[in-house]
């Protein structure tokens, strides 16, 4: 028996709506319907709040508990978020302050799927970045997906992009899902394997530096996606793809000069751009004002800092700058480091073992330890002529039984955009009259604002202020049992 769960979330309360998601999930369903191989398909493209989706998903999984499941096919199109430890499928009522109770966690989904004990699990995720991204190990998402495969007998996991990237779409279809449809519509065979999908998508995105799909496989590459593809079914899929012959497309070209002049409006002069940059501290003081209980318990202290010396997790930030700095007036500074690596003594042996995917780690006769040198980003350096490098907002506790907190705001500038990086850290008591900052678990969050839309800076700072107040006050409320845990289903 083959089962499928298809979820497309287009409408969001606090995120950008994704008109393509409904079409994405509709396209995938049309292909599964044409295959006529699935016993039951859970299809969700409306009523996509968290409780509604989790309720229908739980009921569907429960209905087939104990059955003989040959394959479980899962597809999702919508916003996604990887927080460094788990991937979240973002649903319509998502709240960045209550991530767990307003999203479907990948670990939660895996637990449900594993309860069915499917012989093959297929998970295809076309997730557009939610905008609530974190700076973390660039390979963390891939490692998370890789680790999760160990819980399944056989599996194919396909994610539309790496964590630090966005997944792109037009108003009709997401490009990743469209590639799946094209792979089926254009195949010369009357069947198509999951490996064929992976190959087609890989080729499609091979020259796209902005979107690199992630594929994790634990199967024989013989598993078939659709067994019987007829000419009629191909026409149906082509219709869904809205494929138009190139000779029927008329493109109205604009003069090059007009395009250049229009795009040049995004570029600010140094004086105008620096005026925006230097106004940020005053905007922070204006937006950060605690209310109610928080105002009674904390004093707010806003400070600017002239260098990056006290920035927490600076090497992690430097690595992000090193990989994401195409135009920002900042660069990563690297240090030469060394490490010991174990390598085969004989180059011919190394090549043979690599082909065989075999490494005899306990064979000391064939291996040697080698010192390897490399450069690692450790700090950042701004080329701006500015009065400050970053801003801190300290919520200083007025009472000994309440912990202080601190928010870091670090703006980076280019000719066209401003990237505001932020993170929060908490204090813990270290003596009778002293406390120490705990920054082990902080997460830097980048937010990009075009200079031409500089009015959005105050809006973003207002959101940061609201979240900072909530995250500062919530632990105090919990300690006095004045707030209940979210009632997630």
From TrEMBL:
Q: Where is the Peptidase C14 caspase domain?
A: 2-216
Q: Which domain of life is it from?
A: Bacteria
Q: Name one Pfam family in it.
A: Peptidase_C14
Q: Which GO terms describe its molecular function?
A: cysteine-type endopeptidase activity
Cited InterPro entries: Caspase-like_dom_sf, Pept_C14_caspase
GO biological process, alphabetically ordered: proteolysis
The name this protein carries in UniProt is: Caspase family protein
Organism listed in the record: Enterobacter cloacae
């Amino acid at each position: 028996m083959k089962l499928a769960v298809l979820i497309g979330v287009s409408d969001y309360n606090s995120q950008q709506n994704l008109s393509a998601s409904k079409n994405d999930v509709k396209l995938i369903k049309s292909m599964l319907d044409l295959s006529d191989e699935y016993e039951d398909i859970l299809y969700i493209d409306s009523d996509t709040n968290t409780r509604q989706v989790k309720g229908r998903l739980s009921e569907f999984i429960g209905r087939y508990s104990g059955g003989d499941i040959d394959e479980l096919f899962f597809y999702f199109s919508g916003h996604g978020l990887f927080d460094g430890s788990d991937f979240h499928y973002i649903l319509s009522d998502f709240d960045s302050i209550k991530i767990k109770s307003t999203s479907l966690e990948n670990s939660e989904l895996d637990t449900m799927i594993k309860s069915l004990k499917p012989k093959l699990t297929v998970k295809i995720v076309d997730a557009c970045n939610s905008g609530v991204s974190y700076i973390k190990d660039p390979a963390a998402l891939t490692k998370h997906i890789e680790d999760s495969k160990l819980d399944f007998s056989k599996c194919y996991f396909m994610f539309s992009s790496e964590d630090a990237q966005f997944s792109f779409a037009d108003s009709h279809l997401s490009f990743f899902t469209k590639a799946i449809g094209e792979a089926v519509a254009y195949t010369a065979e009357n069947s198509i394997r999951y490996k064929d999908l992976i190959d087609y998508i890989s080729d499609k995105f091979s020259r796209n530096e902005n979107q690199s799909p992630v594929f994790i496989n634990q199967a024989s590459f013989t598993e078939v996606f659709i067994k019987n593809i007829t000419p009629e079914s191909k026409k149906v899929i082509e219709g869904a793809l809205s494929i138009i012959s190139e000779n029927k497309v008329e493109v109205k070209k604009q003069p090059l000069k007009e395009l250049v002049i229009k795009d040049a409006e995004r570029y600010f002069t140094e004086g105008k751009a620096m005026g925006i940059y230097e106004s940020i501290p005053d905007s922070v003081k204006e937006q950060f004002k605690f209310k109610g209980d928080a105002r009674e318990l904390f004093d707010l202290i806003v400070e600017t800092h002239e260098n990056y010396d006290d920035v927490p997790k600076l090497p992690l930030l430097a690595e992000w700058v090193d990989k994401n700095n195409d135009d920002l007036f900042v660069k990563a500074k690297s240090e030469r480091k060394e490490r010991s690596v174990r390598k085969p003594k004989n180059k011919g042996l190394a090549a043979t073992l690599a082909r065989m995917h075999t490494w005899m780690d306990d064979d000391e006769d064939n291996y040697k330890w080698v010192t390897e040198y490399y450069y690692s980003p450790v700090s950042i350096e701004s080329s701006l002529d500015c009065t400050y490098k970053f801003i801190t907002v300290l919520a200083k506790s007025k009472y000994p039984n309440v912990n202080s907190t601190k928010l870091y705001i670090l703006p980076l500038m280019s000719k066209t955009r401003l990237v505001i990086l932020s993170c929060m850290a908490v204090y813990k008591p270290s003596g009778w009259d002293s406390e120490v900052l705990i920054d082990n678990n902080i997460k830097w969050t980048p937010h990009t604002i075009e200079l031409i839309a500089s009015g959005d800076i105050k809006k973003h700072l207002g959101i940061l202020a609201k979240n900072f107040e909530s995250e500062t006050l919530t632990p105090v409320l919990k300690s006095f049992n004045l707030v209940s845990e979210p009632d997630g289903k």
